[in-house]
User: Fold these one by one.
Assistant:
Number 1:
Amino acid sequence: MEDLERSYTDGIVTEPVTRRRFLHAAGAFGALAGLQRLRPAYAYPANDLQAFAGVEHRVAGAASRTDLVIDRTPFGFGGRRGIATTINGSVPGPLLRFREGERATIHVTNRLGEDTSIHWHGLLVPNAMDGVPGVNFSGIHSGQTFVYDFPLRQYGTYWYHSHSGFQEQLGHYGPLIIDPIEPEPFQYDREYVVMLSDWSFENPLKILDNIKKQGSYYNFQRRTVGDFFKDVDRVGLRATIADRWEWGKMRMSPIDIADVTGSTYTYLLNGLPAASNWTGLFRPGERVRLRFINAAAGSYFDVRIPGLEMTLVQASGQHVQPVTFDEFRIEIAQTFDVIVQPTEDRAYTIFAESMDRSGHARGTLAPRAGMSAEVPTRRPRPTLGMMDMGMAMGMGGHGGMSMPGMDMSAAAPKSVAPAATGHAGHDMSSMPGMASSPGSGVFEGTLRDGTIIRASNLRAPGTIPEPMMHVGGKHGSASAGTAMETRSRLSEPGAGLGEDGWRVLVWTDVKRLTPAATFEAPAREIELHLTGNMERYMWSINGIKYSDAPDPIPLKHGERIRLTIVNDTMMAHPMHMHGVFMELENGHGPECPYVHTINVKPAERVSLLATPVDPGPWAFHCHVLLHMDLGMFRVFQVSEPDGTMTTSEGAAS
Ligand SMILES: [Cu+2]
């Protein structure tokens, strides 16, 4: 990926400053004023209830020209400053607000001194407008203005971000809302965008360098001898030793929850660190819509608002049947719209812990500005179990110490090795063909990049994939610790969640509001394996990183496909498909929800249905920025209606 070549020269400036020096600098350098200026309107702590009622936050008007300028701007907090990659001078960028059915015309001017781009995450746009350099266009060169112009074919909460280098990590992201033509099936009195992200004063290149040298560089929370004896007390010596031995063999650690952590990240809510306490105002009894967006480069957040239950009304921007819970994990690049109804005349904390518990973002809902509520203490770091290694079928749970080596034959489907087909790279001829197992299709072959294709699938559309054994095919040296068994984990809240006695949102709870009128079975199944090696910090798909992948994966215009994503690693990967909504097969048939991004847990097998119609090459990748950068990325090429393949090339003006 050419645009991901390292092009940073100045990057981030980190300079610890004393208070005196900081105040001195503030006069000359404008640091304090800069901080104020950096914040977009919707991120200001509220002091006027009226000003925060709904659509006043609109920056871009529908059907009118929107201008965005990408530049570098000083950014900082807590006495530290750096240089952010900003959109119209702010982090996050301005809220873009349009109306469904209208047209967006957005002029993007690049003042960075290096190429940039904007991708409209989750929007169904013509291929040339999708904004991925090297896939859809050549990028926006410095000094140039590129005009994005596309019809708005959907409603909902989305966001936008750079697809160039590490600009997204440096602040190049913002929220995007498309108001629906039809009235929404739920009511609310006011609304706020709650955009979560992660910021580091370290240059992203330095972060990558550190982590490549040592996979656990940012993981200071290593297990100790004390932990060992605690585990012995809990599960016994034999199980503890067996567990440690298995982890060692996998060259993984059970605390590899996140590869970049709060030891370098500061977690932000609407561009503000926890101490700044972003505040959204309400009048007691009002229904408040919170549009949560996870714009982090590498962090999942577990979100709760103690004292308030939340009702999900949209996921990935699309209406869902209301489901009520106390906590949710927001996947990287996902959006969840929830409604809360605070009735008391008091403040409530919006608490967003990072998944690995190394830090948190925080904001407040309050009847008056300047109020705050108790901020919960972070829970202990979760540990992965053998299930996350694909080793403990039907045993144990999260954070548990399941004994490996159990008999897997009872539940394992019989595998039938297919005839070996043309396949470069690693040997997949012993991959389970599964022709005889229920719920899977007839093996058709593997593409040169290792993607498995099956025809005439037998499993009913919308059903959950069955557990599968991973036989042979370890995806080469770029992959370590290939999961032995993969299965659906959509009903699980995820590592570190679900043990606090409160309700946690899981994907099997989510159903689309209106069932699909037609819900056809897929004609073909395409199976991709997420692969990697944490110790060497290599990430790939089917054991092949993007730069070595031979061809795009071909899709036919209008064909119904099942995309099966198998996570053979022990880290979670939020996978994002450009250009098409996917229907997550979570057991609800025609009520399966639409998603643009789906998290795939360790050792999980997730399947989605899709009917791509917009021709051209579309990116498909992990939304952990470093994983994408290092090769967990593919291109799907959708044919023209007449079956021909064309490459779309946008041109900078
Ligand atoms: Cu990933």
Number 2:
Amino acid sequence: MIPLQPPRRLIDVQIDDETVRVPEGATILDACRAAGKDVPTLCHGDTLTPKNACRVCVVEVEGARTLAPACSRKAEAGMKVGTGSERARHSRKVVLELLGSSVDLSTTPRAAEWTAEYGADPARFGADAATVEQPAKVDNDLYVRDYSKCILCYKCVDACGEQWQNTFAIGVAGRGFDGTISTEFDAPLTDSACVYCGNCVEVCPTGALSFKTEFDMRAEGTWDESRQSETTTVCSYCGVGCNLTLHVQDNKIVKVTSPHDNPVTKGNLCVKGRFGYGYV
Ligand code: SF4
Ligand code: SF4
Ligand code: FES
């Protein structure tokens, strides 16, 4: 089903040497993707208002003094964008070096590929570089918070808070270098307002938030996405009819996600749809 949208005027934008046509209101990132350009993103979420936290998506806009974050800057008619200029590539390289030196990016999709592509050397700050290393928080049977992998993109906070769930179980604690994602008073999730919808897990770009099943299987070395199949079906618990994507390995459901392009749920689920698959 394709939901009807109000008609939008189309504008022409020049991406590198190619002119693409995108609807008014589209971002530079949308235009780059329409032109087939692979601009890296980390904090951008396709179901969330851009936060501009990571700046790995920067591009050069002709006439602009500073580099523009492609994920949030709106495309304008006649805009000329350079996606791979020396300055943009250097900026992305430094972002990847800073993140790579302080955060465990081992489960961030494509991080290793981008690190190689941009020639980033996270080790160049030396062995004493500050890191966010800490033990993973395993305090419930459904999902794990491993903040050694957290890039402070705030997606989980937005998903849990005013953008989707309105539960406000997790937020930012501390300021500046001491900023972390936390529950109130750093309590275990079981003592927090969390309702275990897992919508934070759905949007986390690094694997800092993960299903307990995935966390355990990674620890024992059995997690293997190449052996997993994905089947999208309809949740059987209530009449809303949310879409569930079941990730199955060795004939067992290992995690549940939800399609972001669903016009009703936009990737969000409740605890039953997300974690209540034991009966299957
Ligand atoms: S599972 Fe839901 S309620 Fe709990 S922290 Fe995540 S988004 Fe918030
Ligand atoms: S836990 Fe994940 S979603 Fe939340 S701020 Fe950290 S990296 Fe972003
Ligand atoms: S992806 Fe654009 S600022 Fe993070």
Number 3:
Amino acid sequence: MTVSAWLPARVVSVTPTTPHARVLMLDVPGWPGNLPGQHLDVRLTAEDGYQAERSYSLASSGAGARVELAVDEIPDGEVSPYLVREVRAGDELEVKGPLGAYFVWRTDDPSPVQLIAGGSGVVPLVAIARARIAASASVSPMRLLYSVRSAGDALYAEEISTFEDRGVTTSWVYTRTAPDGWNGRTGRVDADLLADAVWSPSMNPLIFVCGPTGFVEAVADALVVSGHDPGRVRTERFGGS
Ligand SMILES: Cc1cc2nc3c(=O)[nH]c(=O)nc-3n(C[C@H](O)[C@H](O)[C@H](O)COP(=O)(O)OP(=O)(O)OC[C@H]3O[C@@H](n4cnc5c(N)ncnc54)[C@H](O)[C@@H]3O)c2cc1C
């Protein structure tokens, strides 16, 4: 799958997934297809010619001209408020991709896989979990640990709640507000939580960690301290803290 030049992309649908995030379906004629975990660049051009580019993970994978993104609004951001509040079905953007050769999962890799997301960092991990669920021949055991401020901040919450029954073990951690009746963990992800919710180092899992920079660094450091092979911990930083 070679990286495309900038391609015109038509917005097919815009669906709220939280009060501040939207799932965008795009039709991209000429899209070369992508692997689970890859991202693309979006380019916006204003009427005066000013351009802004940002990276967005692909929630979709495989062949075909339709791609799926999920964008979480960063207050005071330049691009994400436009993609979340302004963009409508029928609008045109430009995209380039697929990008990223390292933060990808291949369905023929039999290793246990651990997915660890903070906030919107769940997007490429949803692509990986969907690919695992679709790949009936895959033998790779998969788990997801998803850290969000509150239940209402979770992207793809409804779909993720079905993962457990479809072979992807799921654990949640709420950093600020837990749902009523929650008797699991609340607070930041730490070594104790990772020991409970992550495949053990003895299984040598392939680990994908994605989210804000501070979250990714704290989790990756804690994993290595607890005995995981640094070469098996793949990280993707979304920026911010
Ligand atoms: C490989 C990759 C994949 C990404 N995938 C996604 C995705 O699937 N969904 C998604 O919503 N975003 C994703 N991002 C983040 C995205 O590229 C933008 O950084 C984000 O949308 C903010 O852009 P902005 O123009 O609105 O904010 P900017 O104008 O660039 O920044 C405004 C302020 O927000 C801070 N900031 C920027 N990004 C973040 C962030 N992610 N979290 C917290 N603070 C931030 C900046 O430090 C700055 O202070 C990804 C980033 C990378 C590098």
